[in-house]
Amino acid sequence: MSLKTKTSRDHLPPPTDKYSKYKNTKTTFRKKQVLNSAFEIDSNFEILNAVGQGAYGLVVAAKNKATPKGQPSLLAIKKIEKAFEHRIFAKRTLRELRILRLLHHENIIGIQNLLLPKSREEFDDIYVCMELMETDLASIIKSSQKLSYDHIKFFLYQILRGLKYIHSAGIVHRDLKPRNLLINSNCDLKICDFGLARAMHFKNTPKEMTSYVATRWYRPPELLLETKEYGPGIDMWSVGCILAEMIKRRPFLPGTDTTSQLELIFNMFGTPTEEDIAGVDQVKARQFLRFTRKKEGKNLEKVVFPGTDPMILDLIKKMLTFNPKKRITVEEALRHPYLADLYCPEDEPVREFVSAGEFEYEKHDLQLNVVKDLLYEEILLYHFPEFRDEYSLKVLKNEIELSNGNGNLLQKNHHHHEKHGNILNRNGSKSETESGRQQFFAKENICLG
Q1: Nearest CA among 54, 40, 64, 56 for reference residue 123
Q2: Which terminal Cβ of the chain has fewer Cβ within 10 Å, N or C?
Q3: Is 175 in the active site?
Q4: Facing residues of 50 across strands?
């Protein structure tokens, strides 16, 4: 009697037969060339024009001809090209789509739909239907359009309002910058691009993540120094840089490499104290800081931002504090006197932490084909109620296993009022912006024509 030996086949992903019942036999596909990209999507969508292009692919403005009368028919469709060429990029795409499915907030870009491909076998590109926005903050800053202090305050408030919800969900964005803040002509602002975001699942384990995140100019000292543990404070540093950039109309700390970025920070704010240096968890980083020539920093009021409201400068300094444990939190920033005329905690929604079961895959070094399966399943959630039911049970099972295995899942914040059990809520209710804030720019809207 011969023993059965394991072969390479035993390590292959399961066959895609399990997806056969989800083949798309209803959609009439139509192909259209946009710039250098072929869009093959539902014929109900009329592509109007390209609105953005990057390494990820192409975004077009489109009209949904099947939209019921009286409802908005314009939307943005983002084609993620070559999504499966590299495992890392595929995993980043999965992370972003999953996070955006779980977050529902006025100041966060919303996914309306993920277009269903013909089948799992013919699944090569990803089409994301989103709200159509007119421009981004980077374009406004670079333009000659007026950007008053009232505009700056309202944009800042919306960034913080969205970030409060993101942090309450246990998510850190990690790549906040003007390009990732979308804006409409009525001054609505929405945070986008969650490809580098992370869910902070566990409360007692070190939050070790790669330090190579965030565009360098908006990167806090703890990332530049490659510390092992960091948290929501990295987003607050980025917001401080963005606020300063809106005032100056140019990047505030435009370093050319990591060393020059740290030098700019120290020239502006002074070198850290011995107490703050002692709190850095990397030995080499502590040595570097102790041998750095001591600097006092600049006088922000007189030299850097002459004539600027002292309350704005106070908030900038609290956001751009070297020690992340002393840096202002998003809730504290919203309560800052500078935002007193906009602050409305009743209209600043929060939620429970996202389910750790949604991100169980992060524990594993998955093959590209498995990541592709997970992305296909993410799309199925938008189209098949029975699949959503199966998926909900899988998430619950993952969470129970993680909880039993670690015993240290983040405790639920019972003061939060949105349950993570909502797997898909494309039509989730949104709080209405307070009427006083809605009219904040009635006299002075930005023209984005």
Answers
A1: 40
A2: N
A3: yes
A4: 60
**312: which 2 tokens?**
């704005």
Q: Are 143 and 133 in contact (CB under 8 A)?
A: no
Question: Cα 396 vs. chain centroid, distance in angstroms?
Answer: 24
Measured between alpha carbons, how far is 385 from 258 in angstroms, rounded to an integer? 48
Place of tokens 């374009």: 139
Which residue ranges in the chain fall short of pLDDT 70? 1-16, 201-214, 405-449
Cα separation, 422 vs 68, whole angstroms: 25
Q: Which contiguous run of DSSP H or E holds residue 313?
A: helix 310-319
* Pick from 145, 272, 288, 164: nearest CA to 226: 288
Signed CA dihedral, 302, 306, 308, 313: sign only: negative
Cα–Cα distance between 72 and 56 in angstroms, integer? 27
Please provide the size of the chain in residues: 449
- Burial class for 243, CB neighbours closer than 10 Å (0-12, 13-18, 19+): buried
The per-residue pLDDT for 266 is 97
Interior/surface letters 49-74, b for 16+ CB within 10 angstroms, e for the rest = eebbeeebbbbbbbbbeeeeeeeeee
111, 96 Cβ separation under 8 angstroms: no
Sign of CA dihedral 280, 180, 109, 162: positive
pLDDT at 124: 92
Dihedrals φ, ψ of 279, to 5°? Answer: -85, -5
pLDDT at 213: 56
Burial class (CB in 10 A: 0-12, 13-18, 19+), 436: exposed
Type of residue numbered 273: T
Cα-Cα-Cα-Cα dihedral of 332, 336, 341, 344, to 10°?
A: 10
Q: Of the residues 175, 193, 235, 373, which is catalytic?
A: 175
CB atoms within 10 A of CB 191: 24
